[in-house]
Specification:
With 542 residues, this protein is an alpha/beta fold. It is built from 23 helices and 16 strands. A 6-stranded parallel β-sheet has the order 5-4-3-6-7-8, with helices on both faces. Strands 9-11-10 form a 3-stranded antiparallel β-sheet. Strand 3, helix 2 and strand 4 form a beta-alpha-beta unit.
Length: 542
């Protein structure tokens, strides 16, 4: 009886790497056990042992392109996929190429000598390609491991895959995208070896002597490493597709499908040895639930569409029932829900998402409440109720009709003192004309007034009737609040990056237009005290 063995999670044959909870590190990969086997055509009786099941690989190393320091990493990695039946390294050994004899002996690597027949021609590449094709036609291996960062081997990788070979690529982060995509799997040796972390922990020359913590590799990723955000969106798609089929999504399946979708995917590229830890730290839209030794992946509950509609309607009412830019609404939603994304609700455009609400109308880039749902204007409300108002309420109504630009910036208590009525009378007036309270009425007045006034006029109506001491107290209190809000929202990492850029730049240009011109002069003056190379640009110099 002949037995074919398949991966527990993906039932893939011939068997490939299976991702479990420890994806990313050497300990993370396992092959399916005998109990997970599925019978194929009968040829012989008995179980096949693990030794016979492993794939055989030809490991071909480009000595001109790969450093000796990766030797142990190369064979540790290939051991997780199968046997390195062929171990060959190609280079001109008559000249020093960095690979020592001891390293070759320790790893049982067979050096292949290739002289440089002429300057500027890479004979080593040709020798490696010829040997690869000879090994292919020998029929003795199941796959190839091409250890190089040279894109010249892209065509070789493609040809080997056409011959149904499993091709593993190994190289540094500088490897061109064409070669990484031509392989079934590509491993970035400099990332998995932790070299990037070691470099960042060394003496901080580039930051002017300031010390930094060793940053995780994901903060210095090569552009060819798939962004975490793209990884998260792919997982969301996996989970949603499974939900549509009525089945749960487990970590093993997620790891396997990520490996298929992103050739170079490896948790170690992002500074993690376990996929579960990577997802917990970097994917806020996902929830990970442990069930025994397994992990189930679910999407975090998002704000309901009904709740979002109420928030948008309240935002529109606060702005007079209309905004002229959809991005204002999007910014408002993201402030309240940082992970908000219209794609999570099945839409790829903000306008399409907003059109799905019955009470909201979208016209080009403008958003407004539909006519039947638009609140009546405050002036209309006052006129409707005026005949039946008390004496005190009529006084308030008359003041608002004549001086609405001032009333918009007055508290209930201050408006009461102005008209010689109690604060509670002002509050009852707002409720009497259909508002939930004075703040709502004041907000509508303010939104309408500020849209019609320039900056000087706004200051005038805001501080009208106040003493000089009251004005300065109000201004300073506002500045204190702004400083506090800035401190709370400051991104320390972004600030450090900005400082580093300013320190390292050869020349720094400073420009300020109109009212910002004095600030530009202030900044350029003090930057010149810290470093040279500061150029202040003025409108007369443009």
């Amino acid at each position: 009886m002949f037995y074919a063995f398949a991966c527990v999670n993906c039932r893939d044959f011939p068997r490939k790497l299976c991702y479990t909870e420890n994806i990313g590190g050497p300990e993370s990969r396992r092959m399916a056990s005998k109990s997970d086997s599925v019978s194929a055509k009968p040829e012989m009786e008995g179980d096949m042992n693990d030794e016979e099941e492993k794939k055989h690989f030809a490991v071909l190393i480009d000595a001109d392109n790969i450093s000796e320091k990766y030797a142990s990493s190369i064979f540790n990695e290939i051991a997780d996929y199968g046997y390195a039946s062929y171990r060959r390294i190609y280079g001109n050994w008559a000249k020093g190429n960095g690979w020592k004899e001891d390293t070759l002996l320790e790893n049982s690597i067979n050096p292949i000598q290739q002289f440089n027949y002429t300057i500027g021609k890479n004979a080593t590449d040709m020798a490696m390609v010829i040997d690869a094709m000879d090994i292919l036609y020998s029929g003795k291996v199941d796959g190839f491991c091409l250890v190089t960062s040279d894109s010249d081997f892209t065509k070789l990788a493609m040809r080997l895959r056409e011959a149904q070979m499993y091709v593993i690529g190994m190289g540094e982060s500088k490897t061109p995208l064409a070669l990484t995509k031509a392989c079934n799997k590509f491993i970035r040796l400099d990332l998995i070896s932790g070299e990037m972390e070691e470099k960042s922990a060394e003496s901080p020359k580039a930051s002017g002597g300031r010390k930094h913590k060793a940053s995780a590799p994901e903060e210095k990723q090569d552009s060819t490493v798939t962004p975490i955000s793209e990884i998260e969106e792919a997982i969301i798609t996996f989970v949603q597709n499974n939900e549509n089929k009525g089945k749960p999504t487990y970590l093993g399946e997620v790891g396997s499908r990520l490996g298929d979708k992103f050739i170079e995917f490896d948790a170690r590229n992002y500074g993690y040895t376990k996929l579960v830890t990577l997802l917990r730290d970097k994917c806020p839209k996902l929830t990970i639930i442990q069930e025994g030794t397994s992990y189930r992946i679910e999407l975090k509950e998002q704000a309901g569409e009904e709740a979002l509609e109420k928030e948008i309607i309240a935002f529109l009412k606060k702005n007079g029932g209309k905004v002229d830019n959809l991005s204002l609404v999007l910014d408002h939603l993201k402030k309240k829900h940082p992970q908000f994304n219209v794609s999570d609700y099945g839409y790829n455009r903000v306008s399409s998402f907003l059109r799905s609400f019955d009470k909201i109308s979208v016209h080009g880039n403008a958003l407004m409440l539909k006519e039947g749902d638009r609140e009546r204007d405050i002036i209309t409300r006052i006129n409707e109720k005026f005949p039946h108002m008390s004496k005190g309420h009529k006084a308030i109504a008359a003041f608002i009709l004549e001086h609405y630009d001032q009333a918009a910036f007055m508290t209930a208590a201050r408006l009461g003192r102005q008209l010689h009525v109690s604060e509670s009378t002002v509050v009852r007036f707002a409720s009497g004309i259909g508002y939930s309270g004075y703040p709502e009425m004041q907000a509508e007045l303010a939104a309408r007034v500020t849209s019609r006034l320039n900056a000087v006029e706004r200051v005038g109506v805001k501080y009208a009737g106040r003493s000089q001491s009251e004005v300065i107290e109000s201004v300073l209190a506002s500045d204190m609040e702004n400083i506090r809000a800035t401190t709370e929202s400051l991104d320390a990492a972004a600030f450090d990056t900005a400082v580093d850029i300013l320190l390292e730049a050869k020349t720094v240009y400073v420009i300020g237009i109109r009212s910002c011109a004095p600030l530009a002069e202030f900044l350029s003056f003090y930057l010149n005290m810290v470093r040279g190379g500061i150029v202040l640009l003025k409108t007369t110099s443009l």
